[in-house]
Each structure stands twice: as C-alpha cells, then as structure tokens.
Amino acid sequence: MMDLVIPDKVHDESRQGEALLLTPAAGKNNGRKLYIESYGCAMNFSDSEIVASILSEKGFETTTDYTNADVIFINTCSIRENAETRVRNRLREFKAAKAKNPGMVVGVLGCMAERLKAKFLEEEKLVDVVVGPDAYRDLPNLIEQVDGGQKAVNVLLSREETYADISPVRLNSNGINAFVSIMRGCDNMCSFCVVPFTRGRERSRDAVSIVNECTDLFNSGYREVTLLGQNVDSYKWTSVDGTQHVNFANLLELVALVNPDLRVRFSTSHPKDITDEVLYTIAKYDNICNYIHLPVQSGSSRVLDLMNRTYDREWYINRVDAIHRIIPGCAISTDVITGFCTETEEDHNETVSMMEYVKYDFAYMFMYSERPGTLAAKRYADDIPESIKAARLTEIVALQQQHSHIRLQAQIGKVQKVLIEGFSKKSKNDYCGRSDQNAMVVFPVDERYKPGMYVNVLAERCTTATLMGKIVPPGPLKGE
Ligand code: SAH
Ligand code: SF4
Ligand code: F3S
Q: Which CATH class is domain 33-154?
C-alpha cells in the first residue's frame, strides 16, 4: 500500500533514489567513479552531501550511470518496511552490474546499515561495505579494506559527531535552496519509531559553524536554507568557554540575521518542545518563513500516550492556537499514522476531527508499519488489519486534499512573495517557486527576473497542490 506524500522540498519523495553528482577536489582525481543514490528524509540527502565531500577529497568523481561505476553507494532509510523493500529491490538491480565488473564495490550507508549491521553482509551477498550514519569519515579506509579483498563494516554511533567541519558538496543543486543539518540523532522514544536506534543520541552542531555555512551559502548565491533536525526545538549549544548559550529561537535569529534576503526554513518541530519564544522569533523576522511542520501522528490522546509522544490532544491544540495567535497566516503541515496498535474507530475519528480543526496546509500520511526493536514492537501487538489501516488512510488522504485545496483557495486574490526556483516542471514558459507559506506557485516567465530572485505574484487560481498567477509590480505586500 502506498504512502501519500504531497511533495515539498523537505519531504520530496520525487527525489527518492536520485543519483547525485560530484567532481573530485582540485588535483586529486583518483580515476575512480562513484555512484551514490539516496532514500529517506532530508537528513539522509544532506548526509550524502557530506559523504560526497569526504570522497571528493579522496579524488572520486561521480557518474549517473551505475553500470560503469567503480563504487556504488546506496544511502538507505528504515522508517517503514516499504522503505527497506525498495532498497533491497534496488540492490538486486545492482547485482547484474557487479557480475560484469567483479571489482566493483557496493556499499550500504545510512539507517538500514545501522539497523542491520553486519547481518546485511549475510543477507545480501553482493554488499561489500556497511556504514552507519556516524561513521562516514571512515569511508576511505573502509573502501581500502574492500579493495584489499575484505568485507568492511563500521556502524559505531557517536555522541559527538556532527560533521561540523565538513563543508558539504551541494549535489544536483539548483544553487538556490540548501539543507543545513543543525543536529543529529533523536532522544525521543516515540514507540513506533526506529530513528533513535538508527541515528543514536541527539547532539547539536556548533552554532558558529551553522551560521558560517549559511553565510557562505548566501555569498555563493543561495537564497534559502532549511535547518534540519529530527526535533529542532530541542537544539541546544554552549560555546567551549561556556559564555554563549544558543537555543533554537536564538539560532533562528542568528541565521535570519545573515541577510534579510536569505529565507530560513526548518524541519521538524516537535509539538512538545516548540516554544512561544520560537514563534515570536518567526514573527519578528520577515525572512523566517511562516510555515511550521508540526507532526501530530494521531488526534487521540489515548493513542498519543501509547505512541509515547508525551503530549495530548489538548496540548497540541494549544500549540496550534499559539501559532495562529503569534504568527497570523502561518501555514501548518503534519504527519499522521493510521492503524497504530489498538487504534479504534473512535480514535481514528479523533484524528479526523483534529484535521478538521487545524485544516492543515499539507500532510504526509502513512499506515503504521511495525519496526523491529522499537518499543511498540516489543510492547503492543500490531493488531489493526492492513485493510482497516488502508481504509483509514484513504479517508484522511481525501480529507486532506480538500483542506489543501481550501488553504490554497484562501490565497487567491492575494499577492505572494515568491523566490523563483526555476522553470516549472510542465513548461519552460513558466517559472515556479514557493511562497513564504511554502505553497508551490507557478507563473509566466518574465525575462527581467531570474531564478534566485524574489517576485510578487498575484495568485489567480489553484489546483489542489499549486497556486497559479502572474508577476505584479514590486510594492508593499498585503498584510505588511
Ligand atoms: N522526527 C520527526 C519524524 C521523523 S519520521 C517527528 O518527530 O515528527 C517521519 C514520519 O514518519 C513520522 O512523523 C511518522 O509520521 C512516520 N513514521 C515514523 N515511524 C513510522 C512507522 N513505524 N510506521 C509508519 N509511519 C512512521
Ligand atoms: Fe522518531 Fe519521535 Fe524522534 Fe521523530 S521525535 S525521530 S518520530 S523518535
Ligand atoms: Fe531519515 Fe529514514 Fe533514517 S526517515 S533518519 S533516513 S530511518
């Protein structure tokens, strides 16, 4: 059964499995070609840029054709069973290429590598190297071990590693939007979730290195950064001399101050941790986008308790009300799981009523998939039949489509500040870009404006996923 995804940049499933391109660092070409493909969340895509940076230093160049690669890396996701199935199917496809070129190195990186560890080598014979998310600095050594005829594994998790000093190679980038990791790991123990096991303990990256990276990005023409963490609201960093304490609100402010023309987005906010201070900071700076991804998972307090989300329905509603009070017009998106253990029709109806209450701008909706080793797998039976999980998913998907449409319709007749990202997917006669509230906006090309520039677009009509309109002269935006 498929998961429904309404794409945005952070959760863009159309990027799943995309091959990434890099060139070797100057003067270091080792003549070997690397093919790297990524699955899962934005964090994994961001990690692939760190891997690319480490390997380009060692002289690798990339290819988009795995059949002529010397090294194939697949950066994997374990979040749901179907994410793992996809990777295994892909590995089968690599088999034929390896049969033709026995010297080829096949490596599994990321969350599945961490979850399965050395077992991977037994399960998938063609895999030569297995590397967890905190061990990428070791990749050059591991490749050497494989060259020497051994299999290689490094799945050590770290309490410190943030790759703060590694300047990611921006892969297949449009030169306008970039992901910036601000923390790694997760200390929450949501009972359904495999991430704390695959990514280890939560740690925050040095704030100075984050601000420097954002400044460098702005100076090289980037106009939007998305700060990434599993729970950005628990970001916490103290300088070595103990004089500076930076929480997430402070970090947002520091990045917003890099330049008023640098848009700042972030993901993911956790309902238990998002503070009014963060909301006031978003409201204070025009360049911090009015868009919050606030996963609810379920509308039922009973189910939220079993999920170990540590908030209840009332708390979540209080946070949504605070967002609307402090940041009028702020867009909100969410994640929902259907058919979690013991979920009754009443629980499900509470999720539906939560969706009715918030009327989310977007939602990412999934059927519960039991993950080995998680608290839920140990404690509760996966007792909701697949057919019921699927029926509940279908129901909320249809509801969300109505809400997304209503949200976009409310923007018609209003002027949107849009950062042009490039041509629309459908036509070279149209540009596309995102509004402050993260809506995709399509409008006819005007030669005076180029990707990376901001334009005012009057929204004239919409589909369920896109606003369409035309550029209007600069001037104060409505609501300013
Ligand atoms: N850190 C983020 C979520 C990361 S995982 C947060 O706390 O919100 C992205 C989404 O995948 C989750 O929000 C959840 O909706 C979904 N998910 C995680 N584990 C899942 C599972 N076992 N089955 C189905 N969906 C799951
Ligand atoms: Fe998983 Fe919960 Fe951590 Fe999100 S906050 S990554 S859902 S354990
Ligand atoms: Fe991300 Fe998937 Fe790992 S969602 S953190 S790549 S399990």
A: alpha beta
The single residue listed with the structure tokens 């790297």 is: 36
Fold type of domain 1-9+173-289: Transcription Regulator spoIIAA (3.30.750)
| pTM over cut 0.85 | yes
The CATH classification of domain 316-409, taken from the options 3.90.1150.10, 2.40.37.20, 3.30.750.200, 3.20.20.370? 3.30.750.200
Query: Which tens digit of pLDDT belongs to each residue from 176-220?
Result: 999 999 999 999 999 999 999 999 999 999 999 999 999 999 999
Query: Quick check: 331 and 292 in contact, CB under 8 A?
Result: yes
- Determine the distance separating the centroid of ligand 2 and the alpha carbon of 409, expressed in angstroms: 33
Query: What's the 230 CA to ligand 2 centre distance in angstroms?
Result: 6
Per-residue pLDDT of 444-469, as tens digits, reads 999 999 999 999 999 999 998 999 99
86 Cβ below 6 A of ligand 3: no
Could you tell me where the beta strands, DSSP code E, fall in 33-157?
33-38, 61-62, 71-76, 105-110, 129-131, 152-154
How far apart, in whole angstroms, are the C-alpha atoms of residue 50 and residue 412?
41
**Which atom number of ligand 3 is nearest to the Cα of residue 43?**
1
Looking at the domain covering 415-471, what would its CATH class be? mainly beta
Q: Which residues line ligand 2 (CB under 6 A)?
A: 186, 188, 190, 193, 195-196, 230-231, 270
- Per-residue pLDDT of 96-145, as tens digits, reads 899 998 899 999 999 999 999 999 999 888 899 999 999 999 999 999 99
* Mean local confidence (pLDDT), 230-250: 96
Of the ligands numbered here, which is closest to the C-alpha atom of 110? 3
Cβ(44) – ligand 3 distance below 6 Å: yes
- Centre a 10 Å sphere on the Cβ of residue 333 and count the other Cβ atoms it contains: 26
Helices (H), 161-231: 195-199, 207-219
Is residue 140 within 8 Å of residue 55, measured between CB atoms? yes
Q: How far is the CA of 190 from the centre of ligand 1 (A)?
A: 9
Q: Give the distance (Å) from ligand 1 centre to CA of residue 194.
A: 9
The domain locations on the chain are: 1-9+173-289, 33-154, 316-409, 415-471
Site residues for ligand 1, CB cut-off 6 Å: 79-80, 192-193, 195, 230-231, 268, 270, 295, 297, 335, 337, 366, 368-369, 371
Residue 307 alpha carbon to ligand 2 centre in Å: 10
314-360 tens-digit pLDDT = 999 999 999 999 999 999 999 999 999 999 999 999 999 999 999 99
